[in-house]
Amino acid sequence: MASENITVPPPSASFDGGALDCGSGLLLLIRQHIDPLREGQILEIASSEASVCEDLPAWCRMTGNELVSEDRGEGRYRFLVAKGRFIPTQVSSAPETSSRPRMPGRQILPVQIPGSLPSPAPVPSIPPLSVMGVGSWPRPRWMIQALHEYLDGRLPEADFQATADDAVRLVLDAQVAAGVDVVTDGEQRRDNYASFVASRLDNCQLVPITDLMPYVEDPEEFERELRALDVPAGKVRHPAVLGPLSRSRPIAVHELDFARRHTSLPVKIALPGPYLLTRTMWMECVSDMAYADREALAEDVVRVLREEIHFLLAAGAALVQLDEPVLSEVVFGGAVAGNRSFMCGALGARRDTPEELAFAEDLLLRVTRGLPAERLAMHVCRGNWTPDETVALRGDYRPLLGLLARAPVGTLFLEMATPRAGEMEVLAELPREKRIGVGVVNQKIPEVEPLDVVLARAQRAVELFGPERVLLNPDCGFATFADNPVASAEIARGKLAVAVEASRILRARHG
What we know:
Elements: E1 13-16, H1 26-34, E2 42-47, H2 52-63, E3 66-72, E4 77-82, H3 141-151, H4 157-178, E5 202-208, H5 219-228, E6 237-246, H6 253-261, E7 268-272, H7 274-281, H8 294-314, E8 319-323, H9 326-332, E9 341-342, E10 345-346, H10 353-368, E11 376-380, H11 401-406, E12 411-414, E13 435-441, H12 451-465, E14 470-474, H13 489-510
Parallel strand pairs: 1-2, 7-8, 8-11, 11-12, 12-13, 13-14
Antiparallel strand pairs: 2-4, 3-4, 5-6, 9-10
Helix pairs in contact: 3-4, 4-13, 7-8, 8-10, 12-13
């Protein structure tokens, strides 16, 4: 905190939080006001809630912002918080302007529902033994910088999209050079594989995971847990629901459109699954301002995802993949992963395992109802936030076999290269109408696996499932979280290339 002989410049932004405490929305308002400021600029916060005097300093410590001064009057409190470190000589009183509109206060936008949903457009089928990535690709340093400036409201939408276009072109070129059969756009426009949805949906806001401190019973234990999981908590953002969810603009159709304009190969688009979104979006004291319970939130999650999938298939997506890695937390999670944090995200409390699996299966059925299973896929892994294998979950697919067998999708993309996933033979009894995308390279290993190792994994899959059912892929994405890639772009291309070579050999063997 600044000493008395240091002159503090006038605040660059200010607001009155009234009687809100940190656990009932004050931090969301702080985030809205502090994000557009430059490093070192001052935010003034007025409050009439006494608990803020204790909670705000702790929040500042966790987020790397500096509490410059505080004034505790009779029932009224005033705080000056610097964005980042307080440096008086570098402070300007005027914040940068941005053409990106920001949601003031708790404005709730009206729900928009399309009058009709389009039918899927025909696309060529994906041949057996095709090779593709799971979704994400390492972002260049300049793309990560643009992403942060955009999320903070300091980079206009048009400038951000132009920068992302350049990054996607590089990703497509790398995949084509590796020889893949199906491409993704590398999720370059996303801060991570799931939370990005909050930046596209109405009445939802992205906040750093450190802002979740007031919603946990033991903030210090929460911080220790994040460190143990190797989570870059200050940079990873989390969705906070402020009102009824609505989809007034695409979640990922714009990503598909750009990729299809720049490649002749089929394009796969990954979306967070309905169970994953419901678990991550439901937070007590925030979500319950808009929804009576988790099931009510799930209704709108299902609706907006159904809308998006319809438009993606109509726009020519070869595959729409639903990511449901949190299913692993349901069956393998325990005291280590807890119910609060997993894969750089926060998870609401869950019920017992059978009930949660039934809930997840019901959501999948509702999201995909009436859609062609052969154009839909699901991805399951055990966590991909760090290359450290020791902090990720482990266990074979036995507890999930029933759900995987009944899942209303034509393809399952599963991690199998890591020993944490158990033996491939466990999957032998899955229905024959399901294709299996087999993880034949481990994205966490910092070198490209030898061809004979990759080929042996792929050959074993062919023996178990038949060549017509097998697709080849990495265990997971190469950069699930923008700030925390688990591989370099060079290694990612090399891993795909060795999978392509294995596919070429198997196609020659099996016709």
